[in-house]
Amino acid sequence: MFSQGSVQFAQSTCLTPTAAENPSMLKKVRFQNPMNDFEIASAPDDTVSALAFSPPSVEKNFLIAGSWDSSARCWEVEQSGNTIPKSVQSMQGPILDVCWHNDGNKVFIASTDKLAKCWDLVTNQSIQVAAHEAPIKTCHWIKSPQYSCLMTGSWDKTLKFWDTRSPKPMLTINLNHKCFAADVDYPMAVVATSSREIIFYKLDTQPREYQKIGSPLKHQSRCIAILKDSNKSPKGFALGSIAGKVAIHYVDKQDNKRNFSFKCHRMNPSAPGGFQEVYPVNDVKFHPVHESTLATVGSDGVFSFWDKEKRTKLKSSEAMEQAITKCAFNKDGQIFAYSVGYDWAKGHEFYDATKKNYIFLRPCFQDLQAQSNAVA
Fold this sequence. Notes:
Blueprint: E1 2-3, E2 6-7, H1 11-14, H2 17-21, H3 23-32, E3 38-39, E4 48-53, E5 61-67, E6 71-77, E7 83-90, E8 95-100, E9 106-111, E10 115-120, E11 125-131, E12 136-143, E13 148-154, E14 158-162, E15 171-174, E16 179-185, E17 188-193, E18 197-202, E19 208-214, E20 221-228, E21 234-241, E22 245-250, E23 260-263, E24 266-267, E25 277-278, E26 281-286, E27 293-298, E28 303-307, E29 312-316, E30 323-329, E31 335-341, E32 358-363, H4 369-375
Antiparallel strand pairs: 1-2, 3-32, 4-5, 5-6, 6-7, 8-9, 9-10, 10-11, 12-13, 13-14, 14-15, 16-17, 17-18, 18-19, 20-21, 21-22, 22-23, 24-25, 26-27, 27-28, 28-29, 30-31, 31-32
Keywords: Repeat, WD repeat
Pfam family, one: WD40
WD repeats: 88-129, 129-172
């Protein structure tokens, strides 16, 4: 139930029926998640590659997850905390990204089968709306006063913009390198490529390149998220790399003094003189209400909340048994979702087929309470 602006989940209703009826199963669930967060029922059979909550246009909370098992799944998250599996849609290859249409009735799915589809949640039907010559790594819906379109970024080194009523793209931009990560917050789009370039696009009137810079980090880009100012205007990005580091970077040169990077998802050596273990940053997301707060998740199985303005860590979780692969905040920022599974960062020899994949929900109001008070 909701109470005084915070989310309080009824713990008994959040467990799967099997766990609620079987005390030994309850122990297993808690062992898999040392934070005692709430497990979503009917998680995918393979690693989760994308998570997205429904937009503000939808009164209820729905969560979409894309997975390497080639499925996209939808759950309703009730106010009680109970999660209800609603529907499943399949592709011909592993799913790499998902995004919502602004009306909240449709979801776009990008896959390694080189296609993107529009999934109508009302009719549970899907149609092809985009195609590339290589796997599609990212998809984002753009809603502007002048036009609406789907932006797809691919390993075929192109960025394409689609009027979903037409089989041909309305615009194709050559990236020269593979698209590794992207984000959209109108009127800005940002793309991170395999060559460690970061490209900004202005989306008003029509999409066009605005600025191109080299990555502020020395290692391969893995995830990116647009940062906004107190007026909710996009101003720059947070970039995560494979080397346990995040860069905060602003577009305007006048804000260059605010640029910085910080280390995260690293494990200190247990013995003096030992090596520090460094893990990839698998995802980074900004809080939808407190614009200076962001979350990172990593291959070390840890999620962390940060305040970029104070340059401090608000909270870190205990380590899960496996990597945390993706994360998402719901529309009002009270619920934090994250997925746990193997991300292959340690290679095939560490893969354990007996370990399940999970998606957990965490009421994060208290975790961010200090930030909330500071903003107020």
